[in-house]
Amino acid sequence: MKKLNFTVVHFLLIGMLAYSITSCQSARHGDVQASIVDRPDTTQSNSHYISNRPPLLPSALIKLPIGAIEPEGWLKEYLLRQKNGLTGNLGKISAWLQIEDNAWLDANGHGEWGWEEVPYWLKGFANIGYILDDQEMIDEAKIWIEGTIKSQQPNGFFGPDFAWISYISEAERTEAARERETKVRDYWANMIMLYCLQSYYEYSNDERVIKLMTNYFKYQLTVPDSLFLSETKYWQRIRGGDNLHSVMWLYNRTGDAFLLDLAEKIHRNTAPWKSRGHELSAIGNHKSIREGMEWPSWYGNLIDWHNVNIAQAFREPAQYYLLSHDKSDLQATYDNFDIVRRHFGQVPGGMFGADENARPGYDDPRQGIETCGMVEQMNSDEHLLRITGDILWADHAEEVAFNSYPAAVMEDFKALRYFTSPNMVQNDSKNHHPGIDNNGPFLMMNPFSSRCCQHNHAQGWPYYAENLWMASPDNGLASVLYVANVVTATVGDGTEVQIEETTRYPFEEEVHFKLATEQAVNFPWYLRIPAWCNEATVWVNGEKTDINPIAGKYVCLRRNWTSGDEVTLKLPMSLSVKTWQDNHQSASVDYGPLTFSLKIEEHYEKVESDKTAIGDSKWQKDADTRLWPSYEIYAGSPWNYGLMVDKELPEKSFEIHKKPWPVDNFPFSATATPIEIRAKGKRIPAWTMDEHGLAGELKDSPVKTQEPEEQLTLIPMGAARLRISAFPVIGEGSSAVEW
């Protein structure tokens, strides 16, 4: 079964049971009661952590406050690289973050600089500071938090008070449009800053945040619908789900009834992500499609085809479902996820080929996704995991986090790419349009291009770290994303526990937990079993339990837990080959949650950032751009290979090679990754770079070639800055054709 079809079937089978608890089996092992459930029980309400107030439906999982989870291992190393790299230094080099004349620091919201860049960066930067307990980062973040709080006007509005028109040129505007724009505020940047304020409140309990949000939302309720989230300010209408999330967050803390009215207002003025099949997208209407193609009927099935909008906003119906109780709203989010992957996501790595905008006829694995799109997709997965408890969303968050996101940035986190694709064999400063949907140098590693990803990348790993564990409504804990960490949480009757999680997952199969508590406490402990793992086992205090875990469900362990108790989860990984039938029968190779790419020798050429960045890149006047170079990456070895795969036993065509763990604790490196796969393949001489400077588009497999068989090395997709991840398959006989 193809990956996409699994998504559809997965939802049809259990998606509509989003708030049920199903005991598929249960077993008692000594004093441990173990059961298998689809998701945690929501008939109770957590006594220790703020969750949904009626009439909102209960969420299956509850976010722990920032600081409750301390990452260790490779994830902590990643956060430290962010701190010492681009994320931690943007405040000193990005013009958009300069303090002088910044609208976020002006009492009246006026200034030349500001808009989305400050909160985009701050939501990741500040949270890294909170997570690492780094006082220098916390103090720098506090400058922006204080400025934001002080910017609130008597009417409740806060932040920059200027209009920013994102996609309508002056020449295209009518006089009536210009007049209307003077009356329409842009609420988009404030939506991002609300995330920052919520994190700050979790960290500090500063009641000024509650006051600011309450007054701001009262102000929003007074704005006429005709002027609220207006389409003349494009981003806010598309991304209203972020505003909705913050309103529900505040409602759960204050219970103010007016917030429910505002939630309804936001939903009805947000672009209709639930609506299907009635119009072409706003982007699609003025973007060309493949020459000679007619508009396909399905292209009206999403309200918008901008890659980041899809990754960020497709979840809005599911968020509204908490208020509407209408299961068709929840279904709409699953449909949105399915639609884009059916037509543009037949590629490994969890994302989809949209470049800037998904275009019919451009669905090859060489099409990319913005770094913004990756981190927003991870954020959406984390939201939806909390709302539904559906393990699909945890699996998908891992798929993006392990396979797509790491390759979008340099190993030292000092530069990043705007677009990254599954098949990417050259990064340079040239223009690759129309092969990609942008004019300009969008494929190179550059610390300054483009201003959105330059700042928004920061949220990816800190938000991931904050969602490793979640509280359950029945006063328990759920381990949902496996990375080394220490969590401190209140469970059961109000007892605080600390659980140390030791693992090198996803590069190793075992996850070990050790609990510390001052007194015995009874609580349910949920362990996610990934959908790819069919032979998981659970051990308690060194003894294997009798429970037989089921892929895609939770194992729930309940007992009187005492200090020193240990739980071990073993997740045996196996090799598998995925055939992408709807993308030329190409193949990708998986080992557990990791997808593998051809190891290509990468040659890095340093270039000057100020000579290769796109036009909207700006840095502070005192910034030394020589310290922040850009890089072009060229292939130093052949890349045009097809795989030789045994039709009957595909996994027998490959061999796993384990290597020592990297001394710097950073496994997403082409030269130091701890896992490689040996494969066999043949070169396809006719598969070359095309006229746009991109890897030529795939042709149908199986492919015939006269080249000799060679041994190939595959490395984790997330460690490969240059890569082939979707391979042609070599074949013989009448079904195989020359390229």
The level 1 CATH classification of one domain is Mainly Beta
Low-confidence stretches: 1-23, 163-168
What global shape is seen?
A: globular
- End-to-end separation in angstroms reads 26 Å
Which strand order spans the largest sheet, edge to edge or round the barrel?
Answer: 1-2-17-14-10-9-3
Descriptive report:
By secondary structure, the chain is of the alpha+beta class. The protein has a domain at 3-40 and 469-570: Immunoglobulin-like, CATH 2.60.40. The chain is built from 19 helices and 30 strands. The strands form seven sheets. It has a seven-stranded mixed β-sheet with strand order 1-2-17-14-10-9-3, with no helix packed on it. The model is unreliable at 1-23 and 163-168 (pLDDT under 50).
Task: Describe what is shown at a glance.
This protein is an alpha+beta fold. It is built from 19 helices and 30 strands.
SSE order and pairing:
Blueprint: H1 3-14, E1 26-29, E2 32-37, E3 62-63, E4 69-71, H2 73-84, H3 86-93, H4 117-132, H5 135-150, H6 175-181, H7 188-204, H8 207-222, H9 234-238, H10 240-254, H11 258-269, H12 307-313, H13 316-324, H14 327-344, E5 369-370, H15 371-388, H16 391-403, E6 419-420, E7 423-424, E8 426-427, H17 451-456, H18 460-466, E9 469-472, E10 476-479, E11 485-491, E12 495-502, E13 510-517, E14 521-528, E15 537-540, E16 543-544, E17 554-561, E18 566-570, E19 575-580, E20 586-591, E21 594-598, E22 602-607, H19 609-612, E23 630-635, E24 641-643, E25 655-658, E26 675-683, E27 703-704, E28 709-716, E29 723-724, E30 737-738
Parallel strand pairs: 10-14, 27-30
Antiparallel strand pairs: 1-2, 2-17, 3-9, 4-11, 5-6, 7-29, 8-23, 9-10, 11-12, 12-13, 13-18, 14-17, 15-16, 15-18, 19-20, 20-21, 21-28, 22-23, 24-26, 25-26, 26-28
Helix pairs in contact: 1-14, 2-4, 4-5, 4-7, 4-18, 7-8, 7-10, 8-11, 10-11, 10-13, 11-13, 12-15, 13-14, 15-16, 15-18
